[in-house]
Design goal:
The protein is α+β, with helices and mostly antiparallel strands and 564 residues long. It folds into three domains: 26-241 and 405-458, 2-Layer Sandwich (BirA Bifunctional Protein, domain 2); 257-384, YbaK/aminoacyl-tRNA synthetase-associated domain (YbaK protein, Alpha-Beta Complex); 474-563, Rossmann fold. Helix content is 25%, strand content 29%. The strands form seven sheets. Strands 4, 8, 9, 10, 11, 12, 13, 22 and 25 form a nine-stranded mixed sheet that branches. A six-stranded mixed sheet has the order 1-27-26-28-29-30, sandwiched between helices. Helix 1 crosses helix 10, helix 2 packs antiparallel against helix 6 (172-192) and helix 2 (49-68) packs across helix 10 (448-459). The longest helix has 21 residues, at 172-192. The protein is globular and about 95 Å long. It starts with 5 loop residues before the first strand and ends with a helix. The structure holds adenosine-5'-triphosphate (ATP) and magnesium ion. Adenosine-5'-triphosphate (ATP) binds at residues 114, 145, 147, 156-157, 160, 162, 410-413, 445, 447, 449-450.
Length: 564
């Protein structure tokens, strides 16, 4: 079906030559400069006509693929009462991320950051029997999160568009099937969007060991780091990479020996003093877990990833110890802690601290260290947890080859939730045997507005945006670069393309130089640019490929038959 030509003479689009002062990422700079979005307040954005078209193109593809797997579209409120979120504990757990407000009667409300609670209630209300399941519901809706650092434009908004869907099944096999359907739908969505994406394992956090994967768009501006293995294809968010515990034989290690090591409270000082590599030393970080002091052991050359530690121990709260915590604890000698002889302190350790490995570590006395301290012989680990920051070259958990690290933007997340929310709301259906069955759930998100920025990050160059065809605001940008002859030829080209079903943007703005128009065309990023320029009088136009920059002069009729 043919669509009207979008005439730039009437389109509300104002391009800027200067970058906005606060812009940190390429997509932020270009989306503002090209007039696609406009900042309203921190992390809150208006979508202008061209931006709205790109956003709608993303939504349409998402919607088509969700419909194709049998998910049903609904629209729930963004303004939600406190009670369901109180019931699941998220009213509190969300902390400062949640926008909370009161109505005129003083009742508490929130602006939905995600909707597990409300979907669970809907299904409890609507589905009574196993015959009503499985059911998959989705919405494309505005979400609210009071992000701490809403930088990067629409990549991380405080108000943003998300497609969220939820699956409801009577058993684990059903959940696995709903999850697989979503995984495939997401593959098709991101493929159709023209995105370069990776599927990586993610941490499931407080919700337990169920399956969870993220869809990541590799990009320098990304806030996530993922590890991938060039040899076997393993890929995981670095927070989900776990090193295997591999015990070693320790037969020939001598007995523990204490060493006088004055002024060596840091690993660097100790390693230099003893002439051993930092990796041979054992560093013991003290943290408080729900108020209890706990020691965490990692090799001296590694850093503890507090985020990973927090994920492992959630919902317990992890904090660093302070000076005050050492008061009344003569057993804890700051800078000289060792796991041997730590009587009253729980000891967590990285899997690299495997049974049989031998270490140089603190001797629990000032200025003193101990060597030949063997795991399993001289101290026990209460719990092994992978908590170190993953490094380039670390062994792949699947095949042992060196891992590569890359930055990426999280554009989607699929997650087998299990029965957490069904338990909270008592969501049962009558089973085939006539007894109530507890429902199991999945939750699946795509950051629709973030996708727009992620695509811009992946495809833009120094001259401007460069959209994949599926999301571009037009198929062809026709430029009238000159006077009446050029405008006449350009208009004919635009009309013919529109009649052939192409989406056309026509630069028919009066009084602009060809240079300004061509610069704007590059900035706006429509994949194909058709220019009616110098040779217009001879019926010739120039076709430009925005991505490759290739140009070709040819007769209008030939250009049209190529593009139609
Ligand atoms: P992040 O780790 O980036 O904060 P998240 O893990 O909290 O994201 P989810 O709760 O999994 O996000 O939300 C589903 C999807 O919504 C994410 O995969 C992402 O694409 C998108 N999203 C989340 N937060 C934002 C935001 N502040 N702005 C834009 N999109 C977002
Ligand atoms: Mg996520």
């Amino acid at each position: 079906m043919s669509q009207p030509v979008q005439r730039m003479s009437r389109l509300m689009v104002k391009t800027l030559r200067e970058d906005p002062a606060d812009a940190e990422t390429l997509s932020h700079r270009l989306l503002v400069r090209a007039g696609y979005v406009r900042r309203s307040s921190a992390g809150v954005w208006s979508w202008l006509p061209l931006g709205k078209q790109v956003l709608d193109n993303v939504s349409r593809i998402v919607r088509e693929e969700m419909d194709a797997i049998g998910a049903q579209e609904v629209l729930l409120p963004a303004l939600l009462p406190r009670e369901p979120y109180e019931l699941t504990g998220r009213w509190e757990e969300y902390g400062d991320l949640l926008f909370r407000l009161k109505d005129r009667k003083g009742a508490d409300y929130l602006l939905g950051p995600t909707h597990e609670e409300v979907f669970t209630q809907i299904v409890k209300d609507q589905c009574a029997s196993y015959k009503d399941l499985p059911v998959m519901l989705y919405q494309i809706q505005t979400k609210y999160r009071d992000e701490a650092r809403p930088r990067s434009g629409v990549l991380r908004g405080r108000e943003f568009q998300m497609k969220d869907s939820y699956s409801f099944d009577v058993d684990d096999e059903g959940l696995a099937a709903s999850y697989a359907l979503h995984r495939e739908a997401y593959r098709r969505i991101f493929t159709r969007l023209g995105m370069d994406f990776r599927i990586v394992s993610a941490v499931s956090g407080a919700m337990g060991g169920s399956a969870s994967e993220e869809f990541l768009a590799p990009a320098a501006a990304g806030e996530d780091t993922f590890a991938d293995c060039p040899s076997c294809g393993y890929a995981a968010n670095t927070e989900a990479v776990t090193f295997a515990l591999a015990p070693v034989a320790a037969d020939e290690v001598g007995p523990v020996e204490e060493l006088d090591t004055p002024d060596t409270p840091t690993i660097e000082a100790l390693a230099a003093h003893l002439g051993v590599p930092a990796s041979a030393t054992l560093k013991n970080l003290l943290v408080k877990v729900d108020g209890e002091i706990v020691a965490v052991g990692v090799p001296g050359d590694r850093e503890v990833d507090l985020g990973k530690l927090g994920e492992h121990l959630a919902p317990a709260v992890v904090e660093l110890v302070t000076e005050a915590d050492f008061a009344g604890r003569p057993d804890l000698v700051r800078g000289y802690v060792g796991p041997q002889g730590l009587e009253k302190v729980r000891y967590l350790a990285d899997p690299r601290i495997a049974p049989g490995t031998s270490w140089v570590t603190g001797a629990n006395r000032a200025d003193t260290h101990a060597r030949n301290v063997v795991c399993g012989r001289d101290f026990e680990v209460d719990r092994h947890l992978d908590v170190v920051v993953v490094r380039e070259g670390d062994p792949c958990p699947a095949c042992g080859a060196g891992l590569r690290l890359d930055r990426a933007i999280e554009v989607g997340h699929i997650f087998q939730l299990g029965r957490k929310y069904a338990d909270a709301f008592g969501l049962d259906v009558l089973g085939a045997q006539g007894k109530p069955v507890r429902v199991t759930m999945g939750s699946y998100g795509i950051g629709v507005s973030r996708v727009v920025a992620a695509l811009a990050e992946q495809t833009a160059d120094e001259r401007g945006l460069c959209w994949p065809a599926a999301v571009a605001p037009a198929d062809v940008h026709v430029v009238a670069a000159g006077k009446a002859v050029q405008l006449d030829l350009a208009t004919r080209a635009a009309d013919a393309l529109a009649a052939a079903g192409r989406r056309v943007l026509l630069d028919d703005r009066p009084g602009l130089s060809p240079g300004v128009r061509l610069t704007d065309a590059e900035l706006l990023g429509v994949p194909v640019v058709l220019v009616a320029g110098r040779a217009a009088a001879d019926g010739l136009v120039e076709l430009q490929d925005r991505r490759t920059g290739t140009r070709e002069t040819l007769a209008l009729s030939e250009a049209l038959s190529r593009l139609a």
